[in-house]
Write the structure tokens for this entry.
Amino acid sequence: MASLRIAIFVFGVIGCMGCRPDTASPPPAQSATVTAAPAPETPAPIPSFAVYALSRGKGVPAEAREALRRVAELAEEQQRRGVKVKITTTRMGIEGETRVCVAYEDPNEGARAYDRAKNIVKNVDLVNLTIESCVEEKES
């Protein structure tokens, strides 16, 4: 019987090596937080945007003129397909600086066109694409 007590004692000591009385019980289970994947972002409605072709004293570079032409052509193609879009071209300077403003009746169409315009003007020097109103303020 004594050997059984020794075996139980030894097993208890070896089986709980490094155990402390305050940590003998397993930690409480933590609940896992599950978050849903974010919904694909839909572009915010954009009723109008403008593209500017600028210069640095030597006229508007050919790449900038081409990007401006392609954005205007994009809007004109949409017009031919029946999209209600108004295109306004304004000459701004003596070196050919130009602003093309494109306004959409359906701002969702405007958002899609703006995304395409961003791809057209990407990395083109002296071209600015901005979301702005096409309404020109009249001087008083």
User: Anything to note?
Assistant: The two ends are 111 Å apart (CA to CA). The first strand starts at residue 48 and ends at 53. The chain has three helices and four strands.
